[in-house]
From TrEMBL, chain A:
InterPro entries: Gas_vesic_GvpG_halobact, GvpG. This is Gas-vesicle operon protein gvpG1. Pfam families: GvpG.
UniProtKB/TrEMBL annotation, chain B:
The lineage of its organism: Archaea, Methanobacteriati, Methanobacteriota, Stenosarchaea group, Halobacteria. The keyword Repeat does not apply. GO terms for biological process: gas vesicle organization. Its main location: other. It comes from Natrialba aegyptia DSM 13077. It is found in: Gas vesicle. This is Gas vesicle synthesis protein GvpLGvpF. PANTHER family: PROTEIN GVPL 2.
Amino acid sequence: MFVLDDLLFRPLIGIVDTLHSLALQELYDVEALEDERKENRLLYELGERSEEEYLDRKETIEAELELAREVREQFASGRVEVKR
Amino acid sequence: MSNSNRYVYGIVNTADTGNIEFETDAVAGADRVYTVTHRRLGAVVSNIDTTDPEETDEDAQRHDDVLREIMDYDGGKTIVPMQFGMAFENDRTLKNVLRGARPAFRRAMSDIEGRIELGLKLVTQEDGSVDRDEVEDAVSDELDPIAAQAVQNDRFSDRLVLNRSYLVDEDERESFDEAISRLEDRYGDELLVQYTGPFAPYSFVNVEIGAQSQ
């Protein structure tokens, strides 16, 4: 049974790992967050966002960016473990 | 903490400008900018305590404001602008860079002399839509004949229909402003228009600086 389980499930686990890694990378997409930061600034400058909305959003994006950069560094160094 | 590092705004020809020095709100809390020279090239700098400054909105704005002050300094000066974040260990490393990139700086200076950079962004209204190709063609028809050069910038938002920078002779500034007004009249109901500048021509100089921070 061990051999059968191994043959059936190992490829599936590999795919899940890959999908999980891709999802993490998308979640911590530094470029997308940088674009969002620029968009936030632009919409504030154009008067579509109030100063309060702009500053709130800016704070959130900058926190997400910091986290995303850390995660990216860990990915690059191979220190991220995908846990099941 | 030491302030012996040098943050660079841009490069001037000191044969034309002399040594630039003035007090201002500079990057990272500095309050004075001045020139570090090598032969006729001068780097306009302020003191900083890092070679890797963080790009905050406030400091990016200060960088820009200092460049504009230099462009207006003593009747107007040509400066080859640096992008945000160029900082060097000390005067010696900076002078080495000036020496190494001297031909490139001189070429860049001659390319932008008497010219300014102007920016145009067109943005859809929230939930709005527009024929993007038609708008781009109309903008090109109006502005390209007046500008010396144009570049397409990053479209960082789905709502950006167009994001361009133009290099414009100072003598053509009025014609360019009039062309922008015509575009505003034509598209002002469907699009938000952001017309910015004048800036030092960042988008039109391409000087590679080796060993930037060391």
